[in-house]
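Handout, tutorial session.
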Amino acid sequence: MSNRAIQNTLAVFKREFLAYFNSPVFYVIVVIFLLATNGFTFFFSRLLDSDDVSLATRFFVWHPWIYTVLAPAVGMRLWSEEHRLGTIELLMTMPVSPWQAILGKFFAASVIWLIALALTFPIVGTVAYLGDPDSGPIISGYVASYLYAMTCLAVTSAISAFTRSQVVCFIISVAFCLVIALIGDPGLTQTVVNAVPNGMEGVVQFISFFSFMDHFFEMTKGIFVLRDVLYFVSVIVVALLVTDLGLRSKRA
């Protein structure tokens, strides 16, 4: 990437990043995220009432469900708002390529989640005070959590590129992220395996491999498996490619 391309990408990033702070969306989303993570961790998982201070089963376990709703809430404005206001044409006539705009917007939204995750560190401090947790699962858990958030954002970006309505984008994105999460649920997978004809079990297991959940929980165990990291990165890349396709179809 040339210096000019990097400057254009950073310009879009700065524009989008500052736009989040100039609207109540950022503050509302972050507050809801912190309330949800703390509420689920301390009240539903009852972290303080248990001898088990594993963050994998009492903190990170809730993140996929939170991201399923909140990540689309952050990402639904990425392109839908540009379409609705008619500024997409203006953006595309500027000396900025579609990919520079896509990356700038995506990274701006991703940093929002990086900030939100950083604000949950007091929970780690609480766990460290209560016991002596292994740092490995904590680090891998945060990496898995951030990758999951970025994946949901990328999916929302792709859907946002095809619709003018933020509400429609939000509903479709939540539904898509929920389905992709649920297809890897062990109980649901086993139920489907028991219901399908003989010989179809392998197909069901193959489909379940594409679930966000399966790869997420493997990483929260403290083991970095390249396959799981590549899975999330691949989904992000494919979703951004679809975003580019959507933007080009609007320009055609």
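The second record follows below. Compare its token runs with those of the first.
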Amino acid sequence: MKTNLKDLVSILIGVIGFIIPFFLNIPGLSEAGHVALSIFIIAAIFWMLEPVPIYATSIMVILLQVFFLSKQGVLFPEVTAEYSPDSYTEFMGTLANPIIILFLGGFVLADAAVKYDLDKNFTRILLKPFGSNPKFIILGLMVITALLSAFMSNTATTAMMMTVILPIIAKTEASDPLRIGIALSIPFAANIGGIATPIGTPPNAVVIGALSNQGIDIAFTEWMILAGPLVVVVLFFTWLVILRMFKPETDSIPMDFEGKFQKNASAILVYVIFGATVLLWVTESLHGIGSSIIALIPVTVLALTGILDKNGIRQLPWEVLWLVAGGISLGISMESTGLAEWIITNIEWSIFSPVFMIIIFSLVAIVMSNFLSNTVSATLLIPLALSLTTSGAAGEGFSLVLISLVIGVSASLAMMLPISTPPNAIAISTGTFKTKHMTRSGFVVGIFGLLMVALYALFYWPIILN
């Protein structure tokens, strides 16, 4: 592993940040809270500056918590006596958290769909009704991308859709702004579409995992009811923004909708398992089987039949699961040691109105996610927000689910920079547009998203949650 000077400095800053709380006596913060603060600081610095991969930081977080904060901890026994979870498995167990299993099921389904061209055929069938008008082609591409992103990785969806749009872009004039609009429509739709389901994007998993630790379970369908309408509104607005900023100069693009489904036994089994799993997920409120349990069905069946082979298992995005697990684990220690509550109670929240706090949390999540991973942003903010509500500091009108939704959804609305999300990075790598095009349009979409999150948090979500 090559380490440059910037990485070495970042590591040094993180280590110093980790050590400092051990030599402080912060009033109102327990000894265990001081240790949790040390772990939080080094995690935040490593996640933000990335001297090591972000999933490696998550693994480090779990190790530090096992050593410093578990009953079997080998360091600072007086601290572990004060903060005594049942065992170190409270931290290590996050790797088998139901949310991790839910995402694993989603990854396995996505891998099988790609292997048997289900995603490409799905795109071909859904895009055909939109005809050859450029405006509606963009709309069709965005709708399909959003739908795929709701059940697949945003990154995998964008990579696949790029292979779909490049031939379309090749049929347009080099000077036509339509080229930029088509290229931008994919990452924007992938980011927005991921909000729609629990498995759509890692920030959703962070939200559901944090709520689960509070004894609040959100069904697959309930999440879709909460987030789906927002996705539709923001997606439609984004389409209008793209058309306004990158107005097509042509009235028609010839399209090729040739293709066919694979009909071998393995492909048919994948179609059946994919359809059955999604159906069970969206009807969870009817049969009562948890979405994480359902997620084990495709993992088991596809493994038993050999469709998910050892190479397929190795190629799954395990780094995402490690990242989410580390985030859940960090949230557990921040809450249990009183660190999150201490941070919250040192701010005079009573002077702020609920509307102001919703806007602030949403704005901070969007701004952070434009420069950091949206998962990292959600991971750092949600424990603080949850403590704000559980301590009563937020006042009436706030709920655990509400504040978590505000942060989780907002974190996925960051689209201004190529570094904001992997879909953005993939899209700009095509060379079809420049960063300034993404920044201008992404800024407008982000501001509108902020407004919509505030409106939904104030008027729609409370109705559904009550």
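Points raised in discussion: The chain has a mean pLDDT of 84.
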